[in-house]
Design a protein that fits this description.
The chain is α/β, with parallel strands linked by helices. The protein has helices spanning 13-24, 57-67, 84-105, 142-154, 179-186, 205-215, 236-245, 256-273, 281-287, 297-303, 311-324, and strands spanning 4-8, 28-32, 47-50, 71-74, 111-115, 162-167, 169-171, 189-193, 202-204, 222-226, 250-254. The strands form 3 sheets. Strands 3-2-1-4-5-6-10 form a 7-stranded parallel β-sheet, covered by helices on one side.
Length: 328
């Protein structure tokens, strides 16, 4: 009999790849999706669906009792919200409610894996050094603070076996975040904020999915940073993309103060419209951060996680997918 895995956030970018990896590992998959979620891209996958009530612990416990899953990968959350409180509610409180209900439901539960973020740690302020699991957390965004709070609250749930994964910048097929940069390059422009050097890190979404499934069986009560094991300069993402797509866009650098003025205006529009800001000052600070280089040796040693893709390989596959599916 197959072991049962519940994946939250299953209709999202990372969630889709988690489902694929789980099915390849012969797990029975239940996908937690909202009634409003688009799931047409999941129709060809052998999964069952459930709509969890994260706000109501009693209902959540009842749902999880009926499901009786062996494993749970929690990837649901938001990357944009109107306030710190809204980030905390969805990214942290819902995580705590889910974990608590899973324990109270009893049954066969062996492990909960939380898909966190390196944003919970934050970047280093100089080009020297590398982020590892001993780096003191200092998140620079409301999102990062909410992901750190989710970790802290998860660790308070008694009798829960868990593993926390902190992927750095994730890219791959179906991503809509870094994809915005690719669209600009195809349009003939290559924009950057300022000219200060940076050390950046990335991880291909399929490697995140592999790490998550490996974490079901190891790394108990531990936290792991995830990257492809390399660091990249300010322009390498653009340079590789131009090489793969054979593009010659116009490179230019936006003045930092100009971009910050745009961010302030965006924040005010967000406040008046009661919608998340497309860009804000915190996001600019995150994008301009000096050092996001990330060590993954602990994940190699304790999870047996060895990334299959570097940025060149991952981008080649990603950009091919975007073109084949007419995103670019």
């Amino acid at each position: 009999m197959k072991e049962r895995l519940l994946i939250t956030g299953a209709s999202g970018f990372v969630g889709y790849h988690l489902i694929e990896e789980a099915l390849q590992n012969d797990l029975e998959v239940y996908a937690a999706v909202r009634k409003s979620s688009k799931i047409d891209h999941l129709k060809h996958l052998d999964v069952s669906y459930i709509d969890l009530d994260y706000k109501n612990p009693a209902t959540l416990k009842q749902q999880l009792t009926g499901l009786n899953a062996h494993y749970l990968i929690h990837a649901a959350g938001v990357t944009s919200a109107r306030s710190q409180e809204e980030y905390n509610d969805i990214n942290a409180t819902y995580t705590y409610n889910l974990a608590s209900a899973a324990v109270e439901a009893g049954g066969n539960l062996k492990k909960l894996v939380l898909i966190g973020s390196l944003a919970a740690v934050g970047p280093l302020k100089t080009l020297d050094g590398i982020i590892d699991e001993t780096t003191p957390p200092n998140p620079v965004t409301a999102y990062g603070r909410s992901k750190l709070l989710a970790e802290e609250q998860l660790r308070t749930v008694k009798n829960l076996n868990y593993t926390i994964l902190r992927p750095t910048a994730v890219y791959g097929p179906r991503d809509t975040g870094i994809f915005i940069f690719f669209k600009q390059l195809v349009k003939g422009i290559e924009p950057y904020i300022g000219k200060a050097p940076q050390k950046l890190s990335f991880i291909y979404v399929k490697d995140v999915a592999k790490a998550a499934v490996k974490a079901l069986y190891g790394g108990n009560q531990e936290t792991f940073n995830l990257s492809d094991g390399n660091f990249y300069g300010k322009y390498e993402l653009g340079d590789i993309t131009k090489e793969v797509l054979k593009l010659k866009p116009i490179k230019f650098h936006l003045p930092v103060n100009f971009v910050k003025i745009i961010a302030v205006v965006s924040e005010k529009v967000s406040y008046l419209s009661n919608k998340p800001a497309v860009v804000n000052l915190e996001k600019i600070d995150e994008l301009m951060a000096v050092n996001w280089s990330c060590d993954n040796e602990k994940a190699k040693a304790k999870l047996g996680f060895y990334p299959a893709y570097n940025l060149q390989q991952g981008l080649a596959e990603t950009l091919t997918w975007y073109k084949a599916n007419k995103w670019l």
